[in-house]
Input
Amino acid sequence: MGANLHEECGLFAVSNGKFPLDIVTTCYYGLYALQHRGQEGCGMAVTHGENISLYRDLGLVSQVFDKEALSKIPNGSAAIAHARYGTTGVNNRLNVQPLVINHKKGKMALAHNGNLINDFELRDQFESEGSIFQTTSDSEVIAYTITKYRLKTKTIEEAIVQAMDDIKGAYSICVMSHNKIIAARDPRGFRPLSIGTLEDRFIFASETCALDTVGATFLRDVEPGEVVSVVDGVLKSDKTHCNKEKKSLCVFELLYFSRPDSIIDNIPVLNARLRAGSFLALEHPVQADVVIGVPDSGITAAIGYSRQSGIPYGVGLIKNKYIGRTFIQPQQGQRDTAVRIKLNAIRATVEGKRVVLIDDSIVRGTTSKRIVQLLREAGAKEIHLRSSAPKFLYPCFFGTDIDSSENLLAYNYSDDQMKEMLHVDSLGFLSVDNVTKLSDKGIEGFCTACFSGDYPIKNTKTKDKFRLE
Amino acid sequence: MGANLHEECGLFAVSNGKFPLDIVTTCYYGLYALQHRGQEGCGMAVTHGENISLYRDLGLVSQVFDKEALSKIPNGSAAIAHARYGTTGVNNRLNVQPLVINHKKGKMALAHNGNLINDFELRDQFESEGSIFQTTSDSEVIAYTITKYRLKTKTIEEAIVQAMDDIKGAYSICVMSHNKIIAARDPRGFRPLSIGTLEDRFIFASETCALDTVGATFLRDVEPGEVVSVVDGVLKSDKTHCNKEKKSLCVFELLYFSRPDSIIDNIPVLNARLRAGSFLALEHPVQADVVIGVPDSGITAAIGYSRQSGIPYGVGLIKNKYIGRTFIQPQQGQRDTAVRIKLNAIRATVEGKRVVLIDDSIVRGTTSKRIVQLLREAGAKEIHLRSSAPKFLYPCFFGTDIDSSENLLAYNYSDDQMKEMLHVDSLGFLSVDNVTKLSDKGIEGFCTACFSGDYPIKNTKTKDKFRLE
Amino acid sequence: MGANLHEECGLFAVSNGKFPLDIVTTCYYGLYALQHRGQEGCGMAVTHGENISLYRDLGLVSQVFDKEALSKIPNGSAAIAHARYGTTGVNNRLNVQPLVINHKKGKMALAHNGNLINDFELRDQFESEGSIFQTTSDSEVIAYTITKYRLKTKTIEEAIVQAMDDIKGAYSICVMSHNKIIAARDPRGFRPLSIGTLEDRFIFASETCALDTVGATFLRDVEPGEVVSVVDGVLKSDKTHCNKEKKSLCVFELLYFSRPDSIIDNIPVLNARLRAGSFLALEHPVQADVVIGVPDSGITAAIGYSRQSGIPYGVGLIKNKYIGRTFIQPQQGQRDTAVRIKLNAIRATVEGKRVVLIDDSIVRGTTSKRIVQLLREAGAKEIHLRSSAPKFLYPCFFGTDIDSSENLLAYNYSDDQMKEMLHVDSLGFLSVDNVTKLSDKGIEGFCTACFSGDYPIKNTKTKDKFRLE
Amino acid sequence: MGANLHEECGLFAVSNGKFPLDIVTTCYYGLYALQHRGQEGCGMAVTHGENISLYRDLGLVSQVFDKEALSKIPNGSAAIAHARYGTTGVNNRLNVQPLVINHKKGKMALAHNGNLINDFELRDQFESEGSIFQTTSDSEVIAYTITKYRLKTKTIEEAIVQAMDDIKGAYSICVMSHNKIIAARDPRGFRPLSIGTLEDRFIFASETCALDTVGATFLRDVEPGEVVSVVDGVLKSDKTHCNKEKKSLCVFELLYFSRPDSIIDNIPVLNARLRAGSFLALEHPVQADVVIGVPDSGITAAIGYSRQSGIPYGVGLIKNKYIGRTFIQPQQGQRDTAVRIKLNAIRATVEGKRVVLIDDSIVRGTTSKRIVQLLREAGAKEIHLRSSAPKFLYPCFFGTDIDSSENLLAYNYSDDQMKEMLHVDSLGFLSVDNVTKLSDKGIEGFCTACFSGDYPIKNTKTKDKFRLE
Output
């Protein structure tokens, strides 16, 4: 609600196996569990021996995979699926994944979560050799690179390992050939990827909540740099690219993107958020009557703040759960009522109270400002805004659509200016130092570039804003 | 989630006035705010002088009122709107409201929330005189009764007052003629109905959250038995039927149906739920490590239990917010995984813990049983189930689809049997005595028939189950 | 194409019987065959013992009855179906038929083709007694009238016979109770209604083409004034109202509305059109090189003109068969290209030729004018326009939407003026005298009111224009 | 109706120009006019300076380009559009055109009508060099080939000219770069492509009927082998590949695919069909009472037969124009009624008559057999079937989906056997010799491979059936 940040995408894959499984339905439920990672479009590619059936479209899982669509997809032996995050525009259907490509040695389906930083260079090079691209996504560049090596290697796994020498940036990928599922994660592990088992089959999912949903048992995460393949029912691992780079899990996976019931690189997301709330209470204490969170992702940090501070936790904002992509926004001029329709303040909780308001982040500040106004109108006496993410100061090049600096509130204004602009009585952000301690086990390897400017890979892109379309 | 109870419907109306207002959009947002009261279908009737435009269909507000539909409805001077709760079947579109009828003296639109208990008798009488009915709903019976008197009275308000002598049961209604909006509530006030002002216009809504949403200011509730009309911009009241019967607000409006940000008959819904949780903690205390609620309506009672008991509140279950009406249920045999897809237990919260689980009610017990199993699989050591509603023992004839007794768990089994069936370590229900104390101000006039068998009106229906279709 | 006239509706019904038949599919195909009679909406009511399932919506048969809708309609023992002609507006769904009504003695479904002329009076009377109407259609008035008598009669057939004393105008109706199908036609027989047999079942259809489509054998027409009922597999006839009035079949059924493969009151539609063309050639001969027809309904008359005159028949205009209701019309200013998109002239047929152009009628003249222009642009040297219907001079009150006189070209202008306005070299209309000779067997009882002003029933309506909505 | 043959596709393009034109709407109407060439899917690519907006989907023009879709496409300076013929399957959306590709030197949109015969070889070669393909269509192979040369040439026109050395088979293509429209036709001119002018803009269309529809003036056809480009408002022509091969226009363009109002390579389609009918009358005369055609494409040949023979032309079959892609086919067992629903015989025309029945072709014979049965049931005394196409004996590799020989009736049976199987009194096919004389001007260069086995290019494909998916 606060952040309005988005990430590129959720992956789900089911390997071949003897255990009888409705592969299509399993992917359907898996995608449902990963819907929060991408609402623009989704798709699945199902293999049955030589052929690969592909079904993908713009829209939510519930829209793309209605009864008719599901009935059209023949069940198969293995599958990969993808949920993509949302932008608008007429020609985006092509960018919905998985990609299915035909190369010299056969067919390959690919699904990708993340963002390359050298896709321009690679694309340029391929195009110089006469290649053509049908999409503007870096995922097609990955497909090209894998194909380039595939012609020279014995197996697709080897091709992926070699391709990883060329492609730079954040990527978790699932690849399917007619008889294999391969999953790989970039050497820094920017984006999560987990492995589960369901009888004799292996399931790969961006988050463990999808494993739970389909009844699979969590096995372990794909390691940063690892290429895992399932061939003839056996899980094989190639660690050529492991342990060469510093681990750089996107800290926003814990604070915002992932579902609170997921466990990422052994860190329960819920605990990370409770800890963020507790750290906030320690860093930015205040005398108040109630702690409330902005639904949905501010709730858990608010509970953490409440526990640490002893100030009671309450439900102060209620979200209209029926507002979806088809909701028709108020006209210009009524814009201020947009927040009111999506969120309402609960007078019984905040009237006459000193309120601590926890949001997951403050990016542009527009939404925060309106929420504060809602609470004021509902009678809140004081409002102390706390952000469970540090100040956004730098753009992200690894798959999160954090804006160019010029649009970031904290980049442009001092704390006092922001306090005044947001009309709050006090304002506090989690420190970058504490954000690295969100794991129960202590300091972890996180990418904090958007807060610190400390980019795990030197960025060669010249543009400030990283997104193309 | 627990109860899966449904109620008939949400009402919304905008009166005539000079303040320029996009009536159609206002109704659209009003319906969005009342969507939780009815997801089967919705509609709005808009008047522009002599004519009334009606648009209604099966589906959610977002589905019925897409851009195209909205663009087709000419804006008008006043409107009434309705959200209807969901059943299935091919020929239900006719039952979607508002009704627009043509009678001798003109046109009338009507929207109704509630359930009559003498609709069979009235219908029978009308049919004896040759009348025909196009719907199976009691709302058409109300329309007939009003029309019967309309032919003899000078105003439609008088007709409604006289009709209220004949119709018995639970009803909140909004009626629109070409130049008036009239709102009425049955003499016992089973269903809520609130009045707000928006500049010189009056807004009527089943719940105050809809007033907030459209930026209206809450004025007061329509009193039980009152007929309120807006004629030429003036609010008039007829109290012929007021204060003749004991007030009988459906207690389930507070515990389950209404949104926590609504205020009904001066009782904030949120507070009523916190109080239910507190009473539960007092009536059924237990030594435990965490209190969790079943989302969405068990959450607030869980916070109340936590506050009263001192046991920390936690987030133990996460609901997939993308599961909607188009979600394709797992096949028979996979049925046990249905709950898993909609809800997931958060291991980090419950593993190794003694858990107090608060649900808003236990009707058939099926869902509760599956949630308990989810929590056990996530490692909960003990589970203490508490229901913030008393035991359901009797059917409801006033608009809630509580099943016939034979399907009610508590009607058929002892506490020990239920404890065993649900596989919980302890089980407790709020007492009927405490349920009457949910208002901050003390004992209120509630209908508690479904718990106590104490029906506010003697029921003349012979059938155990009240719903026709 | 020329006329753009519309009529209210197509009827189709299947009686009970022992021959196993997929009733729903049979109605579906029957409606397809009658689609030309009404494209606004359609529906079917299927009975299975006591209950009646109703499915109806706005749209073409292909849109309303998609796979999902068909799968939802339980197959039954008998059914009636209806296709309704198209107007626009938001609240027309209610007017889609069949109507299913609940009266004192049970349920009844009704489908109606035609137009009453005393519906205002009857409605007024019912409303005076307190009745309310949910639709603006006269069909509901018929339902009321039947119900009124149904309470006093032993059978529904008797009620219909008695109701026919009250209702005046054009009506063919199909009525279904839980175990009977009844079909009736007004005493003048304005609208067609045919009976077929399919093994031991009886089929009723507005046109015989629907009998052919479902494989039924034509038995005979329902006679003007006759009430035919199928009770326990036996066809019974009540002729109380027969032979009391002069037969007045709408001549436009033959010239325009009906499909050329239908046979109405023993007159093959195709032959009537060939005869119209032949009469035109006799009444308005001309020296020319080719005879062409405006598709679709001008084609056959063109062939008739060609045969009589000896001038070769050619295909001079081609219609784009993909233009349907969803076609987006050119903007104002491009309006002149609208005809060009729907129709194209075939240069090879008309270039340098003297062309006889046969249209089925000339109402407002707008379309004719554009077609003439198309042919001129394609090189036609002379254009001799012939209308296979006489001049429209008077409004219709019996179910055809012929406009009020002020919009009728022939009412306002002399032949010379029209010739100039339409930019044709000569112009000729079929005479009213010859239009009564369209049957092979000689002079038939036709309603020619729109041409002659000779109304079969004295019209009590005060309005010039008969349509309400 | 008879043939059920399909071809790949219709092309439409609008060049840049100063004349203000709603490019999107123009393409929309252009596609409507070409809908008969492809009903599977359609799309348009619109350029506005550097960027190209692409919108395409499965479905008819009316379905793909509804109001919402049209409103989403920004108007531009030039555009190409495509209508594709229909197959089924889940993953076909990718094959809908235009293709938009990104290559080293920019963007390019491509639309293709026809079929390559060396696409496997070319694809193989590209894949050997590491290229990947996202579609299974040969159109992507064309795009690759053009791109390959584009990197070495100064202009895209030159690249196309060079690419034409590599690609072999039937192809008419439209290509758009950000500031040019290029149209090209293979050296044998298998598929049509016409040029029109609309003020200072040039329009390219597969058939001239689309030029008429948008109000453009026909200029000339693109010559076989010609590459025409519009650069800065000037039409340039490259004739490198012209006049090197024998012209081989697909004769089925004249007999079946194209609209009768189109003129292809100076041959009016209508005249070609009239001639076919006349030749049939000369080759296969018979004493009969009426000549009828199978709608739609048998009609004109029937008129030709009638004119030549002196036997009157009549309308003997009526087609239900509402049967479309969504029509639900009768179940197995009712299959024989499928024809009856789509077509009905007109008893008034055929009863007791000796009928000459003209169909455009006889491929498998299934439909012909059912039509004959319909006519027999309607009372036809004799039926003399004439096919305005010669016997199909050989598969087509140039874009028509004529089946492998084993499914072709005439390949497997003698004339006597066919006569018996089809239950006709006599049977006649147009001779291959006469099919080459369909032009008014005498013998033309046609491809008659499917009748004669005389393939204009030696086919290197090993498979009998050419289609992949």
Summary: The interface with chain C takes residues 67-68 of chain A (CB under 8 Å). The domain at 10-245 of chain A is CATH 3.60.20.10 (Glutamine Phosphoribosylpyrophosphate, subunit 1, domain 1).
